[in-house]
């Protein structure tokens, strides 16, 4: 799947955006189906799992486990961040980027919350945590012989997700190479198809390396720590530059209260997990440090 999508992204940008549109619609159709099923279940009085009692299948919850849980939760919302990677290919970015982030964050929040509610109309907290694929378990419980449609939709969702990350993250490598922060070959464009082919292929290789791990939650924690540390440090630059260089042109400007809240949140979800999961955060630091020899050797 990764190889096929790498080919699509190397061949034509329009192909990759069409793939993304199609599979996004498929994902939303699956989620709407689950949400409607949940509404039907709730209307029949299936509210036994909506309680504040501690589920025996759930381990002890404290501030450290809450901080770690943010990595898995924020993983579902990280699309807003990927939008920034393709700003060079966006029409009227100063107008459309904030609008796209605003609309998508609201849409994802509403759909994600309603989907969780739908799951708990049938599954307990322990069953949700223990399921390898929650949507599939939900479908097997309620859809009978039609349960096969949900694994198909899950596969479509995964396919679209991989395509989106390949498309956007490759632009991050491309931009880094343009700024002389990564090997120059990643800034090259395929002359016939006008796609950043070396960057896309590099992203594919990196993805295949990550697949060597079978623990998806460990991967999310490793990459989550590295990602939110990097984003948090980037946002720290915003109030600093407002203070040091107040006259810089700012086509997109927000009230400083928002970056301050964001910085405090970033500190919480990067510092607390260091005590809760030192091994996971240690691997996250190692992922960041792998860039040091690349920089000194190739740049």
From TrEMBL:
<keyword id="KW-1133">Transmembrane helix</keyword>
<feature type="transmembrane region" description="Helical">
    <location>
        <begin position="219"/>
        <end position="243"/>
    </location>
</feature>
<feature type="transmembrane region" description="Helical">
    <location>
        <begin position="255"/>
        <end position="275"/>
    </location>
</feature>
<feature type="transmembrane region" description="Helical">
    <location>
        <begin position="145"/>
        <end position="174"/>
    </location>
</feature>
<feature type="transmembrane region" description="Helical">
    <location>
        <begin position="22"/>
        <end position="43"/>
    </location>
</feature>
<keyword id="KW-0812">Transmembrane</keyword>
<dbReference type="GO" id="GO:0016020">
    <property type="term" value="C:membrane"/>
</dbReference>
<dbReference type="InterPro" id="IPR050598">
    <property type="entry name" value="AminoAcid_Transporter"/>
</dbReference>
<dbReference type="GO" id="GO:0015179">
    <property type="term" value="F:L-amino acid transmembrane transporter activity"/>
</dbReference>
<feature type="transmembrane region" description="Helical">
    <location>
        <begin position="63"/>
        <end position="80"/>
    </location>
</feature>
<dbReference type="Pfam" id="PF13520">
    <property type="entry name" value="AA_permease_2"/>
</dbReference>
<feature type="transmembrane region" description="Helical">
    <location>
        <begin position="194"/>
        <end position="213"/>
    </location>
</feature>
<dbReference type="InterPro" id="IPR002293">
    <property type="entry name" value="AA/rel_permease1"/>
</dbReference>
<feature type="transmembrane region" description="Helical">
    <location>
        <begin position="281"/>
        <end position="298"/>
    </location>
</feature>
<keyword id="KW-0472">Membrane</keyword>
<protein>
    <recommendedName>
        <fullName>Amino acid transporter</fullName>
    </recommendedName>
</protein>
<feature type="transmembrane region" description="Helical">
    <location>
        <begin position="101"/>
        <end position="125"/>
    </location>
</feature>
